[in-house]
Amino acid sequence: MMAARGFGRVITICLCVAVCVEGYRSRSTSLTDSLNILSKNTGNINNSGIVNSGFNELDFRFGQNEDDKTNDEPEDKANATGPKQAAEAKLTFPGNCQPSRTKLRDGSACSGQTLFEDNFDSLNESVWQIEQYIPNTHPEHPFVSYQHLTTGQTISTAGGILQITPKLQQDLPGFTNDTITSGTLNLNSGCTSTESRCEMTVDGADILPPVASGRITSKTFAFKYGKVYVRAKLPQGDWLYPEILLEPFLKKYGSPHYSSGVIKIATARGNRQLYYGQDDYSNKLLYGGPIMDLDCRETLLSGKLRSDGSAWGDNFHVYSLEWTPEHIVLAVDDEVWGRVKPRRSGLQAKFPSHCKRLPRSRLRAGSRMAPFDDHFYLTLGVAAGGITEFPDDSITSNNKRKPWRDGSRKAMLKFWRGTNSWLSTWKLPRLEIDYVKVVAL
Ligand SMILES: *[C@@H]1O[C@H](CO)[C@@H](O)[C@H](O)[C@H]1NC(C)=O
Ligand SMILES: *[C@@H]1O[C@H](CO)[C@@H](O)[C@H](O)[C@H]1NC(C)=O
Ligand SMILES: *[C@@H]1O[C@H](CO)[C@@H](O)[C@H](O)[C@H]1NC(C)=O
Ligand SMILES: *[C@@H]1O[C@H](CO)[C@@H](O)[C@H](O)[C@H]1NC(C)=O
């Protein structure tokens, strides 16, 4: 089960925006342009949750719109005659609405339209599912449980900021230092997964997850292709990492080992200092990108190391993703730092033959972007430890070695036994999110 290796060496890629813009279709806007458009448009957008796309079939009919009548009358008469033309007419939206390559599970999108936005004035549970389960089948095996707590909250909003704060399980009501190695964790009340992921009893080295954390998902809103903007302050504290993800809605290519793909929009290890050999793996290194295979999870990932001495979690930054049928581009504060393009025979062709867990034949039946050619939803959370993010033998502050080994059955136990070495570094352990928005291509 715990066979994964540590995340390998990341390559620092730092492309300028011009390189990215070059490949865009003429109609598309650059990330800079879209940010400008967004800042102009926010007045029309609801504070919380899904922005009503506002366009249904009736709106698209010729002659229903006043502007249309005055501007396009000759063309209307010439073209909107037969049934075929009428169908096409629905796609030439009146007003400023251009059809978009972004697809929604429900409704349709206009080019450049904000489809989803949350400024987190409150946490709207009609939009976000607050997850509650033990991620014991998650490929990263983080040493956490996700809990929807009513007191001692791991998830809250304050001053328009969403905060996800990891806590020690032993500090929650009903738990002590001893219960982590001898007790039971029952999350059935409010469980958002299967029963086997919501209840566990300690069995030898299989202790209770030492960290209680939070995770929310936008399962009411799933989309295919688009631009995502997340203004966030990443958590700091040894062995923590944020989850700012797109996850597959239907898992069309299967569920185990990332078969249907995950996109990490941005992550950085919480350690103020962390070296793997000569390489800086600390909070100064931003990394992310698409993941399709557990053994070869770094194949498509990119990284960007800060060189000014500060760390990503020191300040808020706007992390963004542009996901199209041709590419995946990652940017921070408008600067592109990661870019993935499929080969002619697809993204899967970029993986060497030893990456055996890829469902290659199923992926070949999809588009070149498969598995990233279906609807995905947003996930925000905080994880700790796990068996994929922190390379074995990496060295953190005060020359301390990572306290567990990824392949070991005692990984979580060793992490917990090391609590005294890392807890004091959890000075800013929470993920803070100012806003999230999704804009149509
Ligand atoms: C904003 O929300 C209100 C109340 O939920 C709704 O009536 C309105 O249509 C929404 N506006 C937009 C632009 O989605
Ligand atoms: C109407 O038809 C003309 C000629 O076929 C074409 O150039 C024009 O783009 C069409 N207009 C619309 C709105 O479809
Ligand atoms: C929560 O979201 C739902 C669905 O978008 C919306 O109808 C409702 O008005 C929102 N509530 C608040 C308090 O914003
Ligand atoms: C649990 O208790 C033991 C013995 O009292 C102590 O050595 C250890 O540091 C404690 N562990 C945690 C995580 O508090």
From TrEMBL:
Listed GO biological process terms: carbohydrate metabolic process
Molecular function as annotated in GO: hydrolase activity, hydrolyzing O-glycosyl compounds
Signal peptide: 1-23
Keyword Signal belongs to the record: yes
Start-end of Basic and acidic residues biased regions: 62-78
Parts of the chain that traverse the membrane: none
UniProt keyword list: Signal
Disordered: annotated span: 62-88
Domain called GH16: residue spans: 91-441
Pfam families: Glyco_hydro_16
InterPro entries hit by this protein: Beta-glucanase-like, ConA-like_dom_sf, GH16_GRP_C, Glycosyl_Hydrlase_16
Record-given protein name: Beta-1,3-glucan recognition protein 3
Protein encoded by which gene: BGRP-3
